[in-house]
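Standup notes
- DV: blocked on the single-chain target, sequence here:
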Amino acid sequence: MTTYDKDGRTHLSAAGLRARGWTTGMVRQLLGEPDLLRTNPHFKSAPQTRLYAVERIEAAERGDDFRAASAAAARRSAAASAAARRRRREVAVRKFGCD
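- DV (later): unblocked, structure below
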Protein backbone atom coordinates (compact mmCIF):
# COMPACT_ATOMS: atom_id res chain seq x y z
CA MET A 1 0.00 0.00 0.00
CA THR A 2 1.30 3.41 -0.93
CA THR A 3 -0.28 6.53 0.46
CA TYR A 4 0.29 10.25 0.36
CA ASP A 5 -0.10 12.46 3.40
CA LYS A 6 -1.18 16.09 3.37
CA ASP A 7 2.39 17.23 2.60
CA GLY A 8 2.59 15.00 -0.49
CA ARG A 9 5.23 12.68 1.01
CA THR A 10 4.91 9.04 -0.03
CA HIS A 11 4.66 6.30 2.59
CA LEU A 12 4.76 2.51 2.27
CA SER A 13 3.02 -0.13 4.34
CA ALA A 14 4.58 -3.38 5.54
CA ALA A 15 3.38 -5.04 2.33
CA GLY A 16 5.17 -2.40 0.29
CA LEU A 17 8.33 -2.98 2.31
CA ARG A 18 8.10 -6.76 1.79
CA ALA A 19 7.89 -6.12 -1.96
CA ARG A 20 11.20 -4.25 -1.64
CA GLY A 21 12.84 -7.19 0.16
CA TRP A 22 12.34 -6.16 3.78
CA THR A 23 11.54 -8.72 6.47
CA THR A 24 9.51 -8.01 9.60
CA GLY A 25 12.66 -8.14 11.70
CA MET A 26 14.48 -5.72 9.41
CA VAL A 27 11.59 -3.25 9.66
CA ARG A 28 11.61 -3.49 13.44
CA GLN A 29 15.40 -3.23 13.68
CA LEU A 30 16.13 -0.56 11.06
CA LEU A 31 12.98 1.57 10.93
CA GLY A 32 11.42 1.13 14.34
CA GLU A 33 8.14 2.93 14.90
CA PRO A 34 6.01 3.84 11.86
CA ASP A 35 5.73 7.41 10.66
CA LEU A 36 1.95 7.22 10.27
CA LEU A 37 -0.88 5.05 11.52
CA ARG A 38 -3.98 4.91 9.34
CA THR A 39 -7.25 3.04 9.53
CA ASN A 40 -7.00 -0.34 7.86
CA PRO A 41 -8.48 0.11 4.36
CA HIS A 42 -10.00 -3.40 4.30
CA PHE A 43 -11.38 -3.90 7.81
CA LYS A 44 -12.23 -1.02 10.12
CA SER A 45 -11.92 -3.25 13.20
CA ALA A 46 -8.43 -4.50 12.23
CA PRO A 47 -5.29 -2.92 13.67
CA GLN A 48 -4.20 0.29 12.04
CA THR A 49 -1.91 0.14 9.01
CA ARG A 50 1.66 1.15 9.81
CA LEU A 51 3.15 3.46 7.17
CA TYR A 52 6.82 4.35 6.75
CA ALA A 53 8.20 7.38 4.91
CA VAL A 54 9.95 6.51 1.66
CA GLU A 55 12.75 8.96 2.50
CA ARG A 56 13.50 7.01 5.68
CA ILE A 57 13.24 3.68 3.86
CA GLU A 58 15.64 4.75 1.13
CA ALA A 59 18.11 6.15 3.68
CA ALA A 60 18.05 2.84 5.56
CA GLU A 61 18.49 0.88 2.31
CA ARG A 62 21.68 2.84 1.57
CA GLY A 63 23.19 1.85 4.93
CA ASP A 64 25.54 -1.01 5.76
CA ASP A 65 23.11 -2.37 8.36
CA PHE A 66 20.46 -2.93 5.67
CA ARG A 67 22.94 -4.64 3.35
CA ALA A 68 24.06 -6.97 6.14
CA ALA A 69 20.49 -7.77 7.24
CA SER A 70 19.40 -8.30 3.64
CA ALA A 71 22.29 -10.67 2.95
CA ALA A 72 21.51 -12.64 6.11
CA ALA A 73 17.83 -12.86 5.13
CA ALA A 74 18.79 -14.08 1.65
CA ARG A 75 21.02 -16.79 3.17
CA ARG A 76 18.21 -17.92 5.50
CA SER A 77 15.74 -17.98 2.61
CA ALA A 78 18.10 -20.03 0.44
CA ALA A 79 18.74 -22.48 3.28
CA ALA A 80 15.00 -22.87 3.93
CA SER A 81 14.33 -23.46 0.22
CA ALA A 82 17.09 -26.07 0.04
CA ALA A 83 15.71 -27.82 3.13
CA ALA A 84 12.19 -27.86 1.65
CA ARG A 85 13.52 -29.35 -1.62
CA ARG A 86 15.42 -32.00 0.36
CA ARG A 87 12.31 -32.90 2.37
CA ARG A 88 10.21 -33.18 -0.82
CA ARG A 89 12.81 -35.52 -2.36
CA GLU A 90 12.90 -37.64 0.79
CA VAL A 91 9.11 -37.95 0.81
CA ALA A 92 9.07 -38.87 -2.89
CA VAL A 93 11.69 -41.56 -2.30
CA ARG A 94 9.75 -42.99 0.66
CA LYS A 95 6.37 -42.82 -1.07
CA PHE A 96 7.20 -43.66 -4.67
CA GLY A 97 10.65 -45.20 -4.46
CA CYS A 98 12.02 -42.73 -7.02
CA ASP A 99 15.34 -40.94 -6.79
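- Follow-up: Residues 71 and 77 are 10 Å apart (CA to CA).
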